[in-house]
Amino acid sequence: MMKHFLSFALMTSVLASASSLVEYRDDAKLGRILTDASGMTLYIFTKDTENTSNCYDQCAINWPPLTVKGTKDLPEGPGYGTTTRKDGSLQVTYNGWPLYYWIKDQKAGDTTGQAVGKVWWVANQQPLITVQKDTAQGNVLAGPNNMTLYIFSKDEGTTSNCYDQCAINWPPLLVSDATQLMGTFKGRLGLTTRKDGALQVTIDGKPVYYWIKDQKVGDTTGHGVGNVWWVIPDTATAL
After folding, report:
1. Cβ(149)–Cβ(143) under 8 Å?
2. Same domain, 25 and 107
3. Pseudo-torsion of CA 232, 169, 26, 112, nearest 10°?
4. Higher pLDDT residue, 151 or 78?
5. Based on the domain organization, do 91 and 141 belong to the same domain?
6. Distance between CA 98 and CA 47 in Å, rounded?
7. Is residue 148 a contact partner of residue 219, using CB atoms and an 8 Å limit?
8. Left if phi > 0, otherwise alpha if psi is -120 to 50, otherwise beta: which for 108?
9. Tens of pLDDT, residues 212-227
10. Structurally, how many domains does the chain consist of?
11. Considering only CA atoms, which of 169, 138, 159 is closest in space to residue 231?
């Protein structure tokens, strides 16, 4: 067991030091997930706070942090940063979440750390909320598929009043758990539980939906429908 642990620790140390580029892999069940340059899966820990790791001692043995020597080694692209650990090392973050390996993953493609303790989750590359620029309604918020999102003025606070045929025409944006709220807009995001127990995303306290008649990225044909459905402008004050 000790031999296995030492070899794993050495492997992850080498991977972390060599991983100047975080890559991604499309997983049939988990979507587009982050990996290091060797294909080893990366994870987030929901007991961390923004840009701060709370995983040390035995936790850090089981979940080795992904570290870099300096910010010049960070992956290219938006969302990447670093947090300074207690020992002074720089741990890579993605959208504010420190990134880790899992000691029980044995080979590239393994995702055995998913949902461990219901606090460890595979890091997902695709942001939950995106911005579609220069649509007919200006810059508006969109879902992970880049299709326009809407709010319903008949909803009451965070409670959805769109069910049955309404929910067919206006599918709610759903997630499986709160970890999917990470991203640029995470300070504005929340969850509401629908009647069937599904978790619907809220933005600034309002449930959000797609519109069945939008056919392509950038469409905003649901704006103003019934004078109760509206796009979500890319401004906090516009809501």
Report:
1. yes
2. yes
3. 100
4. 151
5. no
6. 11
7. yes
8. beta
9. 999 998 999 999 999 9
10. 2
11. 138
